[in-house]
């Protein structure tokens, strides 16, 4: 089979090859692609893209394979799996610029940067791909201090639909650089990212738990506090987790304080401890690379459906009231609320294609189960969504299982979409890269 793709030196896995089943799956979804293509070099990516274009087969591009919408596999098409392009190198020691391969995971990045006392604000899970997370946002443990993962990008190397290798940066193909920071995989395959990393050693990290009965009070008080909390403090409030007791599950505020000064950390975190009855508190000084967790992988046949939205300041009380009420009643989805704001909101709205910089919170509702269970929860889920909609904005593409036109419109408001569609026309006029929240060429 390899001989079929001219100039290709990587691996090609077809249905008759050993390892096909594993190669077809992403972390969250099964698939039956015609071939999984694993490039070993940028030239291989070029050859693979040219082959995909010539064959006319649907194309999925896979970084870390964590897309909730199963964008990293398909049925009957081609999958280009970038796991072989995972090199990580500090290329400018003074400016802390790090070059990361398009198929690397955040765990690999954190481990590689630890000896350099550097880190990039990313996400919370080791196995999540650098590419997927960065291309539409990237909310990690330093998000309020340094912004989204995409805000730390200084350049990207992209293989376009024509098979050309293009560099994009603030002063080079600037419109592509704008689009790629929020526009997902719509414009080509990113074979390398250059990030400005941040000096990091240990950070204060852990969970503070409050009883479920206090959610209605603690949750809004936490959101109020986060509005003016030191930018080094970031948190995720989650509850109604069936694995922790469903509606009786405690409210978990997972937090990170970016720094190793115990006094400053206590000043930042103590106001959270004072919000209610602390059931448990394991916040300790932890090496940044150890803060990232191994994501739980659902067994085959178990689906994970997630939907997300942003909340602006004025809507915080009502949105949180509905979420608190839902979380403490039977049949609630898992609710996770991330504090954003801080550095994210300080960057100009039109600096990148990420559209919801002014939001204070982003929340995701997740249902886990076999397809019939998921189907049975849909009506109640929609009813809840209809109640929340007047108090929310848009959607965060990284926590969004559906990819209908309405979902795409939620991710990209009209003005952003229009500008993205013009860039799409230039770099992917035939919409070869369509396995994403798809922007159609203008
Ligand atoms: C367990 C878990 C934890 C998570 N934690 C966080 C978190 O803390 N913060 C956060 O912001 N998000 C988080 N996410 C969401 C995550 O950011 C998205 O699922 C993201 O899409 C995953 O990227 P990936 O590369 O692993 O996925 P993939 O499925 O491989 O790719 C996702 C999308 O990116 C495209 N793509 C992948 N690689 C490339 C490339 N090299 N060039 C161009 N396009 C490419 C794909 O075609 C697809 O459209 C989490 C998800 C999971 C499942």
Provide structural commentary:
The protein has helices at 20-24, 42-55, 106-113, 130-135, 143-146, 174-180, 215-228, 262-273, 288-291, 316-327, 343-346, 371-388, 405-411, 414-427; strands at residues 11-13, 35-38, 59-62, 78-81, 88-92, 97-101, 118-119, 153-159, 165-169, 189-196, 198-199, 202-210, 233-239, 251-257, 280-281, 284-287, 303-311, 334-339, 361-369. It is α+β, with helices and mostly antiparallel strands and 442 residues long. It has three domains: 2-84, Uridine Diphospho-n-acetylenolpyruvylglucosamine Reductase, domain 2 (2-Layer Sandwich); 88-199 and 415-427, Uridine Diphospho-n-acetylenolpyruvylglucosamine Reductase, domain 3, CATH 3.30.465.10; 202-406, Vanillyl-alcohol Oxidase, Chain A, domain 3 (3-Layer(aba) Sandwich), CATH 3.40.462. Strands 12, 13, 14, 15, 16, 17, 18 and 19 form an eight-stranded antiparallel sheet that branches. Strand 8 and strand 9 (165-169) form a beta hairpin. Helix 7 packs antiparallel against helix 10. The two termini are 36 Å apart. It binds flavin-adenine dinucleotide.
